[in-house]
Design brief:
Oligomer: heterotrimer
Shape of chain A: globular
Largest interface: A-C, 86 and 85 residues
Chains: A mainly alpha (about 290), B alpha/beta (about 425), C mainly alpha (about 300)
Helix content of chain A: over 70%
CATH topology of one domain in chain A: MetI-like fold
Helix content of chain B: 40-55%
Order of helices and strands of chain A: HHHHHHHHHHHHH
CATH class of the largest domain in chain B: Alpha Beta
Strand order of the largest sheet of chain B: 2-1-3-12-5-4
Number of helices of chain B: 18
Radius of gyration of chain A: 24 Å
Number of strands of chain B: 13
CATH architecture of the largest domain in chain B: 3-Layer(aba) Sandwich
Distance between the termini of chain B: 67 Å
Strand content of chain B: 5-15%
CATH superfamily of the largest domain in chain B: Periplasmic binding protein-like II
CATH architecture of one domain in chain A: Orthogonal Bundle
Largest sheet of chain A: none
Structural class of chain B: alpha/beta
CATH topology of the largest domain in chain B: D-Maltodextrin-Binding Protein, domain 2
């Protein structure tokens, strides 16, 4: 009995390792092909590159290409992602808390309204949204399209449903006594929320931030509509799509660009790994 | 945690204040929104030169590839800074954007070309470049196989040549005679370009009878049947992988690595060939799309720069285009930098890329068939009929079924 | 002012930012979209759309391509949900065992989720078209060398599901991991004392305890599979053609891609919009049914 257990254990370990390698395989392909010249990729996709220095050459090309504007798009992506993350989480937490603590038909209705947002596919609101933004400028002079704030507002609108849903579930399990005690002590709602509730929400905050960060950083469709491809403000996916020319797919540069787009987020993930995984694991089940 | 959040908030808000308030360079400057990603860098450089010369700022915006220009153009117009110059392709584009087009008149470049875009006697479009396609061949391999390109003028001649070359596959080191693609990524090659053969091969330049019939829902059955023979011939001698799933790189790559003798593409593949160090001699032979003798290749100006009639810088925009056509800096940009074949007769520079150079020879002989595929209804070429080619190539459709379904799709256009 | 009024003001202050953003960005355009779907809108600024009533909807239901896309989307969704959940659950079990590398594996399985859909589609396209044949020739397996995955409707569909699972399983795995870690150890230990084998443990103890997770994961995988666009566009672009009722159709043109094509390729924004509305309705019904059924089952367990 004991021996068989041990063998099963070893087999499972090996199996896990193999699965892991399979999962990593596509990354391996991207990395080795980023260091090849275009023709080499087509003729020899799985062999090691002839010279690794080609990788640096490719990186230099991408960095300097005026069509991509890598440095500037990294900046834009960062601003948009951080800004959106901040507002989505704070605003949604505020809304969710109010919805949980206020038991009324209105509050249930609003919560369901948010939930419906989870199902609304982007295609349905795509163009009307752009049209709406244009009308807003017509009537109020406020620029919405091709701006940072327009983009961030869009993300708040699309990100709120999921975030509210997650916060809502979590907040339900926070005992009311804490808040009641604080109220008796004379705290107003703002103080209660920011001083007492927010710290408790930390794990779910982390979850919300991670989920939205991945989505927003890699998002293509929304920015292509709000910011437009080839305009002043570009996020990384926009820059890459713009670069992958009409009919010409330069796989070597595309692979390199893909690598350069994925590296920031992977590094970010690896750094915050411990917290992220802990956050996801403890937060998502509620 | 709270302090950090507060700091972040302030930072982000500050940034949005700085950057968000939209730029108002609505003063003397021109915005051109175009769709050739391959020449974006060169066009931007030319715009800089133009600004040095004239003081007028030209902003170049580009989009294309997987983020299709047509859709983004619509979004552009929804936004607050509409482009002054944008691009349309043929009647399809004209019909969509009719209400937004200003007319040209009296500009110098008009007399220097025969390819401007006109509707009802009014000039709307400035031809971006001359493009052409035919059956591009590898001159060295063709010679080795003992086939004289000058004889490739009819379906019979091609049939014989293909059979001969196919028999020598190992000697020549090729995978298949023709590099042809019909897969989901290459719908423009079959549904638009190849189908254009049905529309205009063998006809006089400017003859639109077949096209007009198509737009009225009338297929020319005899012509369609002859055309299907040509399609079948091409498919028969292609490499299956490239034909069914190959993308642009795979198809042009097959030709570039000398694994095929012919490739079904236009002179726009020159930059790709150049970048990948391809340097064998090559040239064009006509498509034998229908029966009879063929002695021309398809030449045209597929895209046009047009002027936004609601723009505030129309004159400046027109001046920029005129400069491109008439000034030597413009010529240098078009031919040497962007590697395009200009549509203007006053340009003395000759493109040095092999296929483009060959095209100028055909142009000089005035041996051209019309480029009509962009005048078909929107989405017809790539969306409606291209899948039929794919199914035919896979063997899901017999030749008879292919013809029948193609005819039906045309009839649905009524 | 009285307590009640003060509460109401606070209610709205807290709710306003998120709610307003959501209404402006999603709800209002949604209703605008419903309006547009009953016109001949082409989204060209300045052109006034004309009312056509239910014309677009009627056309849609008689469109074979739409019917086909509908069926394929259901098939794709069903298979993806099964595939992703099965793989994710398996992963979750593997990474909740006591091994030294468990955090390493968790991170590794999760990382594919960090790659955006469009880019991921290209990578997998490259793998299916170029790498698989190369491996086949390396190993000397001719079938593998010659296979054209993306030319066969069934293989292409499986390819899509494979790539999508690769991307998404890690994320779902995290949810299952959380659920597994919440299973009280005492229960498992007690059952082991009673002599329960691994199967018994799995079915009778673990599954009921993670029932709640199932609701969430089925909802997420269902909705995401149904809405899938990026990967399909990049990997198969609608896919190889095939025959459906004697009509040539695109075998992996799922609804989201189909809607986009109708709207843009054919310049029929209004028709695309109408299909999007139906798409939304179907998705809502399916999703809500699924949640309802699962919630009931949760309670029973």
């Amino acid at each position: 009995m004991g021996i068989s257990r041990k063998w099963t254990g070893i087999l499972i370990t090996i199996f896990t390792g193999i699965l892991f390698l399979i999962m990593m395989f596509p990354f391996f392909i991207v990395v080795i092909n980023s260091a090849k010249a275009s023709l080499e990729i087509i003729t020899d996709p799985i062999s090691m590159p002839e010279k690794w220095s080609q990788l640096f050459e490719n990186i230099k090309i991408i960095w300097n290409k005026p069509t991509i504007r890598y440095a500037s798009s990294v900046f834009s992506s960062t601003v948009i992602t951080t800004g959106s993350l901040f507002f989505i989480s704070v605003f949604s937490a505020m809304a969710a808390w109010m919805l949980v603590r206020t038991k009324s038909k209105l509050s249930t209705f609003i919560f369901l309204l948010f939930l419906s947002g989870l199902i609304i596919p982007f295609q349905v609101v795509m163009f009307p949204l752009v049209e709406l933004f244009r009308r807003i400028r017509e009537f109020t002079g406020i620029h919405m399209l091709k701006t940072y704030h327009g983009m961030i507002l869009t993300y708040i609108g699309f990100g709120a449903p999921m975030a509210v849903f997650l916060f809502h579930g979590f907040i339900k399990s926070i005992p009311k006594e804490l808040e009641e005690a604080a109220t008796i002590d004379g705290c107003n709602k703002f103080q209660i929320f920011f001083r007492i509730i927010m710290p408790i929400l930390k794990p779910i905050f982390v979850t919300v931030i991670i989920l939205n960060a991945i989505w927003i950083w890699n998002d293509f469709l929304l920015p292509s509509l709000i910011l437009g491809v080839g305009q002043e403000i570009q996020t990384i996916p926009l820059a890459i799509a713009n670069f992958a020319g009409s009919f010409v797919k330069k796989w070597d540069l595309i692979m390199t660009a893909v690598l350069m787009a994925a590296v920031p987020i992977i590094i970010g993930f690896l750094i915050g790994q411990k917290h992220i995984i802990k956050g996801m694991v403890s937060g998502s089940i509620k | 945690m709270k302090k950090f959040l507060a700091l972040l908030l302030v930072m982000v808000l500050a940034l949005t204040l700085f950057t968000g308030c939209g730029s108002s360079d609505e003063d003397e400057s021109v915005v051109i929104y175009q769709n050739k990603v391959e020449i974006n860098d060169q066009l931007m450089a030319f715009a800089t030169k133009y600004e040095e010369e004239t003081g007028v700022k030209v902003t170049v915006k580009t989009s294309g590839g997987d983020s299709p220009y047509a859709e983004n153009l619509k979004a552009e117009f929804q936004s607050d800074r509409q482009p002054d110059i944008f691009v349309i392709e043929g009647m399809g584009g004209y019909n969509t954007w009719e209400s937004k087009l200003a007319t040209f008149s009296g500009d110098e470049w008009i007399d220097l070309t025969a390819l401007e875009f006109t509707v009802d006697g009014k000039i709307y479009g400035f031809p971006v470049a001359v493009e052409a396609w035919g059956m591009a061949y590898n001159a060295e391999l063709l010679a080795k196989a003992g086939v004289d390109p000058a004889t490739l003028t009819s379906q019979e001649a091609y049939k014989a040549a293909f059979a001969k070359i196919d028999g020598m596959k190992d000697e020549l080191g090729i995978k298949s005679v023709v590099a042809m693609a019909a897969g989901p990524d290459m719908r423009w090659v079959t549904g638009l370009h190849n189908f254009n053969g049905y529309l205009s091969a063998g006809l006089e330049y400017g003859d639109t009878t077949v096209l007009d019939k198509l737009n009225n829902g009338e297929p020319d059955m005899d012509r369609l049947t002859e055309y299907a023979d040509w399609v079948e011939l091409l498919f028969m001698y292609s490499d299956e992988a490239v034909l069914l799933t190959g993308n642009y790189d795979a198809q042009v790559g097959q030709f570039g690595t000398q694994q095929s003798v012919f490739v079904h593409q236009g002179n726009w593949i020159d930059p790709w060939l150049n970048e990948n160090g391809v340097d064998f001699e090559m040239g064009y032979a006509p498509h034998a799309s229908v029966y009879g003798e063929h002695n021309s290749i398809f030449i045209g100006a597929p895209s046009y720069y047009v002027i936004n009639n609601e723009g505030e810088n129309q004159e400046a925009a027109k001046a920029f285009l005129n400069y491109m056509a008439t000034n030597k800096d413009g010529h240098d940009y078009m031919v040497n930098e962007a590697k395009m074949i200009p549509a203007f007769t006053n340009v003395t520079l000759k493109p040095d890329a092999p296929l483009s150079a060959n095209v100028t020879e055909w142009l000089a002989k005035d041996a051209k068939y019309t480029w009509l595929q962009n005048d078909m209804p929107d989405g017809f070429g790539m969306g409606t009929i291209a899948p039929l080619y794919e199914s035919f190539a896979k063997g899901d459709l017999t030749k008879a079924e292919f013809i029948e379904q193609l005819a039906n799709k045309i009839k649905e256009l009524k | 002012m009285n307590r009640y009024k003060k509460d109401r003001i606070y209610f709205w202050i807290f709710l306003a930012p998120a709610l307003l953003s959501f209404i402006v960005v999603v709800i209002i355009p949604f209703f605008m979209g419903i309006f547009y779907s009953m016109t001949d809108w082409t989204a060209i600024a300045g052109l006034k759309p004309n009312w056509v009533g239910l014309e677009n909807y009627k056309e849609m239901f008689s469109d074979l391509a739409f019917q086909y896309s509908f069926m394929r989307t259901f098939l794709f969704t069903l298979l993806s949900v099964l595939s992703i959940n099965f793989v994710a659950l398996a992963f979750a079990f593997l990474v909740t065992r006591e091994t030294k590398l468990k955090n390493f594996y968790r991170a590794g399985f999760f990382i594919p989720n960090l790659i955006g859909g469009l880019v991921l589609g290209y990578i997998w396209q490259f793998i299916f078209k170029n790498v698989v044949p190369a491996i086949g020739s390396l190993l000397g397996i001719e079938a593998m060398e010659k296979v054209l995955i993306l030319a066969d409707p069934t293989l292409a569909l499986f390819g899509l599901i494979f790539a999508f699972t690769w991307q998404y399983a890690g994320y779902i795995m995290m949810i299952y991991v959380a659920a597994l870690l919440n299973v009280p150890q005492e229960l498992i230990e007690a059952s082991e004392l009673d002599g329960a084998g691994p199967w018994h443990k799995f079915w009778n103890i673990i599954v009921p305890m993670i029932a709640q997770a199932f609701t969430i994961t089925s909802f997420l995988t269902l909705v995401n599979s149904f809405k899938q666009y990026d990967i399909i566009r990049a990997l198969t672009n609608g896919g190889p053609t095939t025959q459906f009722n004697d009509v040539v159709v695109n075998s992996t043109e799922m609804l989201a891609v189909h809607i986009y094509n109708v709207a843009f390729k054919y310049n029929n924004m209004a028709e695309g919009q109408a299909r999007a509305i139906i798409f939304f309705l179907i998705l809502s019904i399916v999703a809500m049914t699924q949640v309802y059924v699962n919630k009931k089952r949760e309670v029973e367990m």
